[in-house]
Every structure is written in structure tokens, then in C-alpha cells.
User: Which sequence fits this backbone?
């Protein structure tokens, strides 16, 4: 309980920052849509479930995950959009407590065949590395990386408890990641080079990994049972569908 209170205090101690959950008229004219109304989890559900898991809620205008990974009743389901997307520009802000890690996963296919979102969808890793030893994370598991596949050439994640801005652009297989204004990944799916890259990773054993050209977007919570209880928050989630 004390540890949970400490986590809450860590988030609460930060200065309040207004979250612009609704796109402006100019943004709407450009095609931007909000994926989160700042008040409810409408438009989202837990992967493989009808509703949302107990660990997900809305706090201070943000989607928040509160998860004790060691709890016997921990719910490890990621939050996914009701709608599937193919070509898009996605922007959101995130912050987390110390030692947490998460991700934003796209082209996720929901089916009883799959237990996890990452069985089908590529992931932009987001993480706080303050509690990890330099050799405990590979170069493909830092914040801004394409998880387990492509490492960014810059480490520009803000300290835990502070907001970070990310952007994911998927345009007919051309994928770009941005973190706090800097491009971290630029690659193209479904090419011979991509196939060879995947073949060198654990995803080579997953026949449907990154196979789908359209799917849900997932907000992932941490799955490492070796870390303390975590909090992860997402806000200003907006998307522009591309032709």
C-alpha cells in the first residue's frame, strides 16, 4: 500500500498540464480525430475482452494504467481501439513511473488465435530505463525503438514522471517513429530486407507477426514481473487517416 501511495504521489506532484483532447477546428480540417475524449474509455476495450480491464481507468484527463505485476489477479490485457486502421498518422503523449516500460502497437489483429497484441503488431517501445543496468536492455528495447528490431540513434526520453510526445506514421508500409520531435525509426514493412530482419528475432517463430496491413492500435502495459507496481499514462491521443 505504501508503495502504491508513493507512486500516486509521484504523479500527483507534477504540475498540472492541460490536455487538449479535442482537435482544434484547423486540425479537424486537416483530418485529425481524437481517439480519447479525456473522460471515458469509450472507443477502447481490453484485448480479447468485451470491456476494459480493472487496471485501466481515466485520471486527470489521461488514460492511466495502474498495475501490480506481482499480484495474483494482475490483468495483463492491453487496451486496443474498437476500430482498425491501415494508413495513418498517430500522435500521443505518455509518462510513466520509474522502471516501467510499455509500448504502442499497431496493425494488431484481434482473434482467439492470439493471446497478446505483439503476436501480430509491431511495437514502438516506450520505457523508463532509470532502474536498469546498462547491459540489461538491448539496443532494441529503449524508448523510441522498434521493439527487438530497429534501434534509434538517439536517447531523448524525458525523466520518469514527465510527459513525452511520440508520433507513429504508417503509410503503405513506410513506418516512421518520432519521440519528442526527433525521428527514431524509419523503415519499410514487407520488403525482403524487412523479412530478413524479422527472421533474426523471436518474431520469426510467430507466423502472423507484422503480416497484416490493417489492424487495431494498442496501448501496452508492462509485463515484467521483476519491477515494482507501475503507473503509465496516455493523453492527447489523436489520429489522421491517410489515403
Assistant:
Amino acid at each position: 500500500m505504501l508503495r502504491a501511495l508513493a507512486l500516486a504521489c509521484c504523479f500527483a506532484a507534477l504540475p498540472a498540464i492541460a490536455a487538449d483532447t479535442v482537435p482544434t477546428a484547423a486540425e479537424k480540417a486537416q483530418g485529425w480525430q481524437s481517439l480519447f475524449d479525456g473522460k471515458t474509455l469509450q472507443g477502447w476495450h481490453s484485448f480479447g475482452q468485451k470491456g476494459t480491464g480493472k487496471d485501466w481507468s481515466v485520471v486527470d484527463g489521461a488514460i492511466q494504467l495502474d498495475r501490480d505485476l506481482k499480484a495474483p489477479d494482475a490483468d495483463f490485457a492491453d487496451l486496443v481501439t474498437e476500430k482498425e486502421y491501415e494508413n495513418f498518422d498517430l500522435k500521443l503523449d505518455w509518462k510513466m513511473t520509474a522502471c516501467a516500460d510499455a509500448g504502442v502497437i499497431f496493425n494488431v489483429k484481434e482473434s482467439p488465435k492470439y493471446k497478446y497484441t505483439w503476436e501480430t503488431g509491431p511495437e514502438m517501445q516506450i520505457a523508463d530505463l532509470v532502474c536498469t543496468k546498462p547491459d540489461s536492455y538491448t539496443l532494441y528495447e529503449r524508448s523510441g525503438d522498434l521493439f527487438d528490431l530497429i534501434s534509434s540513434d538517439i536517447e531523448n526520453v524525458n525523466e520518469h514522471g514527465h510527459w513525452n510526445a511520440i508520433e507513429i506514421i504508417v503509410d503503405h508500409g513506410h513506418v516512421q517513429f518520432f519521440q519528442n520531435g526527433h525521428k527514431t525509426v524509419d523503415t519499410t514493412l514487407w520488403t525482403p530486407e524487412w523479412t530478413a530482419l524479422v527472421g533474426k528475432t523471436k518474431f520469426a517463430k510467430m507466423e502472423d507477426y507484422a503480416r497484416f496491413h490493417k489492424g487495431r492500435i494498442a496501448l501496452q502495459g508492462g509485463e515484467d514481473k521483476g519491477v515494482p507496481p507501475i503507473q503509465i499514462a496516455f493523453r492527447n491521443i489523436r489520429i489522421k487517416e491517410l489515403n
